[in-house]
Amino acid sequence: MKTTLKLAAFSAALALTGCRGWETEERPVHLIKNMDTQEKGKAYRRDTTGLFADGRMMRPPVEGTVAQGQLGDDQLWEEGLGEDGQPSKVFPASVKAEENIEAQTARGENRYRIYCAPCHGVNMDGKGPVGQPALDGGPRLTVPPPDLHQERIAAEMVVGKIYSAIRNGVNDGNMPSYAAQIPVADRWAIVMYLKQAQVKKGSASGIESQGVAAVVVTEATAEAGAKLYKAKGCNACHSVDGSKIVGPTFKGLWGKQENTSAGPVTVDLAYVTESILQPMAKITEGYPPAMPPQQLNELEIKSVALYIESLK
After folding, report:
1. pTM for the whole thing?
2. Could you tell me if 307 and 250 are in contact, meaning their C-beta atoms sit under 8 angstroms apart?
3. What is the DSSP letter of 81?
4. Distances (CA, A) of 310 to 128, 192, 251
5. Which part of the chain is the Cytochrome c domain (predicted)?
6. Which of 23, 92, 257, 305 matches a 20 to 30 Å C-alpha distance to 39?
7. How far apart are CA 251 and CA 260, in angstroms?
8. How far apart are alpha carbons 103 and 91 in whole angstroms?
9. 177 near 115, Cβ under 8 Å?
10. 284: helix, coil or strand?
């Protein structure tokens, strides 16, 4: 009996010793050699099979190949656009689902504080650190960050347009695109947090603003120009009460002589037209070169000009 126990103990010790993983210079035993040494092509290696004419083993993707999960076929989710190709007035269904809103808002607040608050401020008042004057007293940004509770954003800017600002940037890169830093789901979460904060403060009546009605101009009039002034976002940079924002106020502008980068000019229809279509051609002295080209037709431009003329 004792001999049997001793043999068992010795065998167990020997088995455990053999499993310690000691290094050896001996070649491993290949029971099925072709599973370990099979012929295969490796990236960045030369093609030795003669299969490819250029002699390269690594091949580019077939034209039209889309990575898994990156098809981007949902226009609303990916781009913030409705079926009409315009910025959507509504959130994607998954974002505004009742059971998701609380989690979306919390996530959005977290992402907002990381990516948006440095410019727009924790309170969304446009007074973040980057929006403050530089050490020399000048602005750090060409266009100051706006107060996100102001009417043109809280009550008039639809959710798809806010999403687009995050995805594509605005004001010729003054606010750059954050598409690389913020994934799609987090962009929508930020928009949800923003709209919830606006509703809570009373600057917006609901999380899905209907925006400014589209303006169809069939005749050039000052009334149509007044509507375009808001619909096209001119009110973001140009006041009508004499106050200075980003660009010159429209009040008293018509017929005035302005000093520009191309010399003095008189504000008339020709100048207004050029300023709308080619804003970098003549930069008004004392104002930043921040206006992107606008896509307005002849009737719309004449209407805006008539509206400016009426603001004496």
Report:
1. 0.69
2. yes
3. B
4. 37, 39, 9
5. 103-198, 220-312
6. 23
7. 18
8. 15
9. no
10. strand
Q: In what helix (H) or strand (E) does residue 269 lie, and over which residues does it extend?
A: helix 269-277
Give the Cα separation of 196 and 192 in Å (integer).
6
Helical (H) or strand (E) element with 107:
helix 98-115
d(CA 124, CA 117): 7
Can you tell me whether residue 175 is helix, strand or coil? strand
What contacts 284, CB < 8 A, 6 or more positions away? 247, 248, 258, 259, 260
pLDDT band (50, 70, 90) for residue 295: confident
Residue 307: is it exposed, middle or buried by C-beta count within 10 angstroms (0-12/13-18/19+)? buried
pLDDT tens column, 94-141: 898 888 889 999 999 999 999 999 999 999 999 999 988 888 877 788
Give the span between the Cα atoms of 175 and 155, in whole angstroms. 21
Proportion of the chain above pLDDT 90, given as a percent? 51
Helix and strand numbers (H, E) in the chain are: 12, 2
Full set of structural domains in the chain with CATH? 75-201 (1.10.760.10), 222-310 (1.10.760.10)
Q: Taking the CB of residue 267, how many other CB atoms lie within 10 A of it?
A: 21
Query: Which amino acid makes up residue 25?
Result: E
Hey, what are 15's tokens?
């088995």
CA end-to-end span of the chain, whole Å?
117
pLDDT band with cut points at 50, 70 and 90 for residue 19: low
